[in-house]
Specification:
D-amino Acid Aminotransferase, Chain A, domain 1; alpha+beta; two-stranded antiparallel ribbon; single chain; 21% helix; ten-stranded mixed beta sheet
């Protein structure tokens, strides 16, 4: 864990809506047996334990072409989201479990044209911000809540489970490398947007649970909510629409 990065772990109160649905959805997908988290029901024969996502195995390959940090207004004025120098990736398969995660230069992903995410939207994501405080410290706001909700999202759409605490550690690892440069102490009040994403990468057409997947984390600039001047107008919960219906995806994000 990088010094100066504070990660509050106190979760906010759970909303009443969808709590039971969420619990039953996760319980039906996750089963712990002999210390191993499995996606689906337990087979009568105990399967071999496959590696879980493990942040302690993270490998580092630092960029040899670091980018200049643009002004926030410049970064948000173009047609491409400006990301930091590095990202984190980790791959998974039903045969080998989670591979060691990698911190490496930000760049394109390699996918087969038949990857399930491209045809069946097997994807979920979270979004959270890291702030440079006026006391000089970097802060994440309730990353435990985002990590836990992402787990609920992955199992909801048959992507692989993972220990939420390991995702938190990977978020910290990325910020320990890119945070000092992209959120300098000379710019208090600035923030970056972290987006952990999981996609199905199985190169096989057909409606089925993906047998291969990739987790990746990027950090980028994002426009402020009070931009443009005067703020943004949002129309929420119109009378003829329901955002989160019973048994639906209201508690899951993305996909």
């Amino acid at each position: 864990m990088a010094p100066g990065v504070i990660t509050p772990t106190t979760s906010g109160p759970e909303g009443k809506q969808d709590v039971d649905l969420t619990a039953s959805a996760v319980d039906s997908k996750l089963t712990t047996k002999n210390g191993h988290i499995q996606n689906g029901h337990v087979d009568p024969v105990t399967p071999p334990k496959l590696p879980d996502l493990d942040a302690s195995k993270l490998t580092y390959t630092l960029t040899t072409s670091p980018r200049a940090v643009p002004e926030e207004s410049v970064a948000n004025s173009g047609l491409e989201t400006v990301c930091t120098d590095h990202m984190i990736t980790a791959t998974w398969s039903t045969r080998t479990g989670w591979a060691a995660p990698q911190l490496k230069p930000y760049g394109p992903l390699t996918l087969m044209p038949t990857a399930s995410v491209l045809h069946y939207a097997t994807e979920c994501f979270e979004g959270l911000k890291v702030y440079r405080g006026y006391d000089g410290k970097l802060r994440l706001f309730r990353p435990d809540c985002n990590a836990n909700r992402m787990l609920m999202s992955t199992v909801r759409i048959s992507l692989p489970p993972f220990p939420p605490s390991e995702l938190e550690k990977l978020l910290l690892a990325l910020m320990s490398v890119d945070g000092p440069k992209w959120l300098p102490k000379s710019n208090p009040g600035a923030y970056l947007y972290l987006r952990p994403t999981m996609i199905g990468t199985s190169p096989q057409l057909g409606v089925q649970a993906p047998h291969e997947a990739m987790l990746y984390i990027t950090a980028s600039f994002m426009p402020r909510m009070d931009s443009p001047a005067g703020g943004m107008k949002l129309h929420t919960s119109p009378e003829d629409m329901v955002r989160a219906w019973v048994g639906g995806f209201g508690y899951a994000s993305g996909g």
